[in-house]
Amino acid sequence: MTTSGTTAFAPSIADLALNAWSRIQIKPAALTQDHCLQLRLEGNLLQAEWANDGILLWKETLQQQALTQGTGTYSIPSSVVMITEAYISVDSPALNRFITPFSRTDYASLSYPTQQGFPTSYWFDRILSPTITLWPIPDGNATYTLNFWSYSQIQDATFAGGNQPDVPYLALDAFAAGLAYRLARHFAPSLEAIRKADYLDAWGKFSKQYTENVPLYVSPALDNYFRP
Questions:
Q1: Which of 56, 67, 84, 111 is paired with 24 by a 20 to 30 Å CA distance?
Q2: In 3D, which of 126, 111, 128, 119 has the Cα closest to residue 71?
Q3: Which residues 6+ apart lie within 8 Å of 28 measured at CB?
Q4: If we measure between CA atoms, which residue out of 152, 159, 151, 130 comes closest to residue 44?
Q5: Over 90: is that where the pLDDT of 40 sits?
Q6: Domain ranges of the chain
Q7: What is the spatial distance between Cα 136 and Cα 144, in angstroms, rounded to a whole number?
Q8: DSSP string spanning the chain?
Q9: Would you state the pLDDT for residue 37?
Q10: 20 pLDDT exceeds 50?
Q11: Which residue has the higher pLDDT, 160 or 129?
């Protein structure tokens, strides 16, 4: 059997866009300025939809923030969509300790929000310029580093210049199908339903496969329930 021996398939966003137009029976010669405008908007709105649908593993990164005694709130890059895990590292003695999230209400309920100690909890304030607030506030007993895994916004879908989409190989079909479905709303309403079904099928296969293949354990912590 003769094969290519390569794994270099990486179409540009423009190539995927042409495929999407073809799926709604619009050929390149028929494209207008309005077609291109809606393509740019719908391509980026599609990526925002994906960020809302769940954790984007290919956009997960580990970020670190050196902590300062007496400082509880730190800026987070505006591209961060969600913090998924966080832990504190201590230089001496060397150890890592997992910390858990709590809500705005939990933070507002603290009797001593300025208490210093080893941070055990964090509040991720999802404003336009997001912040993370630790509690207790870091003390001076050690050198602390905040480590947090987060997934970030997908890079803008720019259709000019041969740019490639900021998505993995396994998502390419879902990306093209999603574009076709969204563009059908504007330019081929009679095909919208079938393009939606095609997109949901492609997205379903991708999102089902693109997960971490690890066991899931559920362990109720009944001892942590509050008494009425």
A1: 56
A2: 119
A3: 18, 21
A4: 159
A5: yes
A6: 13-55+155-209, 57-152
A7: 12
A8: ------------HHHHHHHHHHHTT--GGG--HHHHHHHHHHHHHHHHHHHHHS--GGGEEEEEEE--TT--EEE--TTEEEEEEEEEEETTTTEEEEEEE--HHHHHT-S-TT-EES--EEEEE-SSS-EEEEESEE-SSS-EEEEEEEEEPPPP---STTPPPSS-GGGHHHHHHHHHHHHHHHH-GGGHHHHHHHHHHHHHHHHHHSS----------GGGPPP-
A9: 94
A10: yes
A11: 129
CA 123, chain centre distance (Å): 18
SS3 25: coil
Predicted pLDDT of residue 228:
42
> Look-up: residue for tokens 């895994």?
149
Name the token pair of 184. Answer: 């059908």
Q: What is the pLDDT of residue 222?
A: 55
Which amino acid type is present at position 113?
P
CA geometry: angle at 134 spanning 132 and 137, to 5°? 140
Residue 209 main-chain phi, psi, to 5 deg: -85, -35
Share of the chain above pLDDT 90, in %: 86
Q: Is 161 helix (H, G, I), strand (E, B) or coil?
A: coil
Average pLDDT over residues 164-183: 97
Strands 95-101 and 116-117 turn out to be unpaired
Q: Is the peptide bond before 93 cis (omega within 30 degrees of 0)?
A: yes
Q: How many Cα neighbours within 13 Å face the side chain of 65?
A: 20
| Res 226: pLDDT | 43
Read off the pLDDT of each residue in 203-207 and give the average, rounded to a whole number: 95
